[in-house]
Each structure stands twice: as structure tokens, then as C-alpha cells.
Write a structure and sequence with these properties.
Blueprint (H helix, E strand, L loop, with lengths): L2 H32 L4 H26 L12 H9 L6 H36 L1 H4 L16 H11 L7 E5 L8 E6 L5 E6 L6 E4 L5 H9 L4 H21 L21 H28 L1 H12 L4 H9 L18 H7 L3 H6 L4 E8 L7 E7 L6 E7 L4 E6 L5 H14 L9 H32 L3 H28 L9 H19 L4 H25 L7 H19 L1
Antiparallel strand pairs: 1-2, 1-5, 2-3, 3-4, 5-6, 6-7, 7-8
Helix pairs in contact: 1-2, 1-10, 2-4, 2-8, 2-9, 2-10, 2-14, 4-7, 4-8, 4-15, 4-16, 8-9, 9-14, 9-15, 15-16, 16-17, 16-18, 18-19
Keywords: Membrane, Transmembrane, Transmembrane helix
Protein name: PepSY-associated TM helix
InterPro entries: PepSY-ass_TM
């Protein structure tokens, strides 16, 4: 396609996407408005339908999009009109989707590596929470009803009096983090994470492990949350289009098979196609749920206006069990609803009947010293739908009691999709560690899928004579992929230094220095030698992790340190072969 026609064609594609997005908004509004079900079901079903509906309409519109006439030799108006009225050739839709897959996939290849790679880092951050902060992961933890929850709340209110009229989240100690974790916003509206002893309630430390940077990169691109989440929502929608349009490249979906004498596709292309086919369900699920979470600024007003008449508070209460009454400055005490007693009693007996194995997951406290206080207790069992919550006021009166297994299909599907996206679930046959391991492998596979797609685009550019563009793309792909690996290794090394393991400024500075060094290293000199040198650097860094932990942090090696050492040996051998 010529340069003159490429720009108009991209403009037409963008127009199709915008128009189909408007149609998807209308369709979601109609579902939330007219579906014969309660308001909460209409709102959740409309929310879940928005991204798939938009994707389907966009793919259909792009498949039917006719190619604009190219500016070659002048011709008469009658010939142009006849060309426009001529029916599309067989296979036009497949070729249009294949062109979309190649162009949009090439644009988002590096972004996909960053998104999927940082998602792997987010899972690592959750799985290695205790390892990052040098806590003893084997420490025995008492049941939540025996932990010093009330003493922890009193300690936090003593240190932060502004919390008396604010919000606080308490996570009881568990196997992955043998401490009570408190999350809240201080007087400067900065997120604070405090760890408290489960036996005494005293503060043990502040801050979080350095890998939090990858988690926040995945959630909001390390920028202002509204802009970052919206941008990631658009990226998730685009990745969904790339994944589904990739089906048009498969041979069995083509109207005519290739001749038997046609040259066999190169290994990179076959690996990309088969890996994409195998990962398509989970990749599409992650892309669509990520778009759902990121595009809440668009989805919530639509479903809220249609299902609840614009009453956002009712929407948040029925869908997310969020109850935020206005501040009542009258003093109150939480003594009638002591947290430990509240957890032990289980104010809602119906939950114990439906989910007998449910355990305390989180306590959300709203205005703890005011008359408008609310306490919501979240419980989780084993399985996607094994979730429940109940809410009490400052006097201990039960205000709300809900169990997800008894909810409608809309709310169940909505909550299950969120749990599947984050991987915060387990089943009787799969423990949380097995789920985390599966998510790590699948995320790494998606990084490889995006990298292979970028390599195919670079090969095409080189074949078309754009050697400089091909080299630049290869450097960018290597910088994104190996740079994320270097970031993980560097932050893991930082977590082995006692004075810096909880320092968020030190983590940000280290991430910036590592990223800058990788960019300078990869974009100067011979690409092959730069890749080899970075692989050796990663191998050395992984080998230093157990050494720093043992000699500097005085931590006995764990299975994580052994895996790091083995991975370092593997990368060293790979760098030597390359």
C-alpha cells in the first residue's frame, strides 16, 4: 500500500472504531435499561457486555471496510464510481482483518510486552510479599479471630488521628504475609502501607517491597490513576482486537488453501501462530477484563444512568457493597463492635451456612471514631464464587449481608471476571501458589507471543528494504523484554538490602536508573553483543540474590533463592550460546 493511501485508511479505521464504540455504548445502555432483571443484574450484565460488544462490532466493521482508491494514474469519474460499486473479492474480510492484525499488532507489540510483563511482575509482587521484606514465611499465624486487630486499629488511630474520619483497610496476617497489613491515605492523600504485629498490634514496618513498581506499572502506568487506567483500558481493547483478528491468519480459516508447492512458513511465524492460538482464550479474557477495569469512566455513567437513574451511590452499594454515608461528626466508639469479637461471631449466620470454609480476607473501616462509622467484613472461600461480606454500623447493628453464590448470574459473572483477571482465587484442587505459578507461565507466554510478533514485523521491514526501521524495532523489542527482566532482578536485589527494602523513593530511583541504563546499552553498539552482555548481567544479578540475602540481610536461603540461582545459570548458558 502506498504512503498516500495508508494515512486515509488509518483514518477510516479509527472512524469505524469510534462509531462502533458509540453503538456499543447504546447497546450497553439498552441492556442496562430494558433487560428484564433487577437493577444490579442489568448494570453488571451491561458492564460485561460493553467491551465484547464493541470488539465484535469493530471487527465486523473493519472486515467490511473497503480499501480507498490509491492515487496512481488519473482516471474518469465513471471508472471510479464503477470501482466503488464493484463487489469485494472473495476473502476480502479475511484480508482486512489480517491487515488490521499486522498493523495494529505491530503498533502495540512493545506495549503488549510492557503490559503482560508488568502483569507477571504484579503476580510476583503478591506471591513474594514476605520474601521481599525478609519476613519469616514459615512463621505460624494465629486465626484472624485471635489476632490483635483492635490493638492494631488503636495504634493506627494514635499515630494518624485523621483516620478517625477517614477510611482504613485491614488485612489479617496469613501464610503469605505473617503480619497485619493496613492500607490508608494520610493527610497528604498519599497511600500508606503499615505492617503490624499480629500478637501485639505494634507497628513492625512501613512501606512495601520494591516490586510494587511493576504492580503499579501494570495498573496505571505509574501516572495519575485516572489517566493511566483509561489508557490501559484503551490498550486492553486494542489488544483484544489484535488477538481476535489474528484468527484470520490461520490456514483453516482461509477460503482457499495454499498450493502444496508453497514454501513452508518460517519457524518464527509458526511459533507465533500456534502460541497465539493456544493462549487466545486466556489472553482475550485478560484483555477484555483489563479494558473493563480501565474504561470504568465510560462504563459506569452508562450503566448507572440506565439502571439506577444516575444514582451512583446505589450502584456502588449493590454492585460493590460500598456504603459511604456522609460524615456525622458526633463522637462514637467501636467498643460494641470490637473487631476481634465481630470476626469471631460472624454477624451474618447465613454466610456460615452457605460458605462454611470462608475465611476473613479484609476489614474495611469507614469513619472509625464517628457516629457515621461503618465496618465491612469481606470473607473468601475456595473458588471463584466463594465470596461474601457483611456490614455493621458503630452500634453493631447488621446493615447488610450478602453471599455471592446466592447472587444473580450478572453479579456472579462480574465478580468472577475481576477475580480471574487478578488471579486472586483458588479452588479445592488448586492452591493459591499453583494459581500464581500458572499465571506466571501464561503471562510469560504472552510476552513471548508479543515478542515473536514484533520479530515478524521487523523481518518484514527488512525484506521491504527498511533495514534501519527493522533494526530499531529489534532494539526496542529487546529493550522492553530484557529491560523488564533487568527491572525485576534489580528490584529483587534491592529487597535484599535491609535499609532500602521498604524505601519507595529508593525503589523509584533504582527503577529509573535501571531503565535508563538498559535503554542506553541496547541502543548503542552491536545489537547481538548488547543482548549477550545483558543476558550475562541478568545471570550475575540472579546469582547475587541469595548471596546478598545470606551475607547482607542475614536471611537463610529459601526456595526462591534457589530458583534465582538456577535461572541465573540458565541465562548464563543462553548468553554463552548466543
Amino acid at each position: 500500500m502506498s504512503t498516500e493511501s495508508r494515512g486515509p485508511r488509518r483514518g477510516r479505521r479509527a472512524l469505524v472504531v469510534v462509531l462502533t464504540g458509540a453503538l456499543a455504548c447504546l447497546g450497553s445502555w439498552l441492556i442496562a435499561r430494558s433487560w428484564p432483571a433487577p437493577a444490579v443484574e442489568r448494570a453488571t450484565l451491561a458492564s460485561l457486555a460493553f467491551v465484547p460488544l464493541w470488539s465484535g462490532l469493530a471487527l465486523a466493521g473493519l472486515a467490511l471496510l473497503r480499501r480507498a482508491p490509491q492515487r496512481r494514474s488519473p482516471r474518469s469519474e465513471s471508472s471510479r464510481d464503477s470501482a466503488r460499486s464493484r463487489p469485494a473479492r472473495p476473502g476480502h474480510g479475511r484480508r482486512s482483518l489480517f491487515a488490521l492484525h499486522r498493523s495494529l499488532g505491530g503498533t502495540l507489540a512493545v506495549v503488549a510486552i510492557l503490559v503482560f510483563g508488568s502483569g507477571v511482575g504484579a503476580v510476583l509482587d503478591r506471591a513474594l510479599a514476605s520474601w521481599q521484606l525478609r519476613a519469616d514465611a514459615t512463621q505460624a499465624v494465629a486465626p484472624a479471630s485471635d489476632q490483635a486487630l483492635d490493638e492494631a486499629l488503636a495504634e493506627l488511630l494514635r499515630q494518624h488521628p485523621e483516620l478517625g474520619a477517614g477510611d482504613l483497610a485491614l488485612h489479617p496476617a496469613g501464610a503469605g504475609h505473617p503480619w497485619i497489613q493496613a492500607d490508608f491515605f494520610d493527610s497528604d492523600r498519599e497511600l500508606v502501607r503499615v505492617e503490624l504485629d499480629p500478637e501485639t498490634g505494634a507497628e513492625r514496618g512501613r512501606g512495601q517491597g520494591p516490586l510494587w513498581i511493576l504492580r503499579e506499572l501494570h495498573r496505571r502506568l505509574l501516572i495519575q490513576p485516572v489517566l493511566g487506567e483509561l489508557a490501559l483500558g484503551v490498550v486492553g481493547f486494542g489488544l483484544g482486537l489484535v488477538l481476535l483478528s489474528g484468527l484470520a491468519t490461520r490456514r483453516w480459516l482461509r477460503p482457499r488453501t495454499r498450493a502444496a508447492t508453497h514454501k513452508r512458513a518460517p519457524l518464527t511465524m509458526r511459533a507465533h501462530q500456534w502460541l497465539g492460538l493456544g493462549l487466545l482464550p486466556v489472553a482475550t479474557l485478560w484483555a477484555w477484563t483489563g479494558a473493563l477495569l480501565g474504561l470504568t469512566l465510560i462504563i459506569v455513567p452508562i450503566v448507572g444512568g440506565a439502571a439506577y437513574g444516575g444514582d451512583r451511590n446505589a450502584l456502588m452499594h449493590e454492585v460493590l457493597a460500598v456504603d459511604r454515608p456522609p460524615l456525622d461528626e458526633g463522637s462514637a466508639t467501636l467498643a460494641p463492635t470490637r473487631l476481634r469479637e465481630l470476626v469471631a461471631s460472624g454477624a451474618c449466620p447465613a454466610i456460615r451456612e452457605q460458605l462454611p470454609d470462608a475465611e476473613l480476607h479484609r476489614i474495611l473501616i469507614h469513619h472509625p471514631t464517628q457516629a457515621s462509622a461503618r465496618i465491612r467484613v469481606d470473607l473468601e472461600g475456595r473458588g471463584l464464587l466463594a465470596r461474601a461480606s457483611f456490614t455493621v454500623d458503630a452500634s453493631g447493628e447488621l446493615l447488610d449481608c450478602r453471599s455471592l453464590p446466592r447472587a444473580g448470574i450478572g453479579l456472579q459473572s462480574f465478580m468472577a471476571s475481576v477475580a480471574l483477571h487478578y488471579g486472586e482465587w483458588d479452588t479445592p484442587g488448586l492452591s493459591r501458589r499453583v494459581v500464581d505459578g500458572a499465571y506466571l507461565l501464561l503471562g510469560a507466554g504472552l510476552v513471548a507471543l508479543a515478542w515473536l510478533g514484533g520479530c515478524l514485523l521487523a523481518r518484514r521491514r527488512a525484506r521491504d528494504g527498511d533495514a534501519r526501521g527493522a533494526l530499531y524495532l529489534r532494539r526496542t523489542l529487546s529493550c522492553a523484554g530484557l529491560g523488564l527482566a533487568a527491572l525485576v532482578v534489580g528490584l529483587a536485589l534491592l529487597s535484599r538490602i535491609p535499609g532500602l527494602a521498604r524505601s519507595e523513593p529508593a525503589a523509584l530511583l533504582s527503577a529509573g536508573l535501571i531503565s535508563g541504563a538498559v535503554v542506553l546499552w541496547m541502543f548503542t553498539g552491536d545489537l547481538s553483543s548488547r543482548r549477550r552482555g545483558l543476558l550475562f548481567a541478568l545471570a550475575i544479578g540472579l546469582g547475587l540474590i541469595p548471596l546478598l540475602g545470606y551475607f547482607v540481610a542475614d536471611v537463610a536461603p529459601t526456595s526462591v533463592d534457589v530458583l534465582a540461582a538456577l535461572a541465573g545459570i540458565g541465562l548464563g548458558l543462553l548468553g554463552r550460546r548466543s
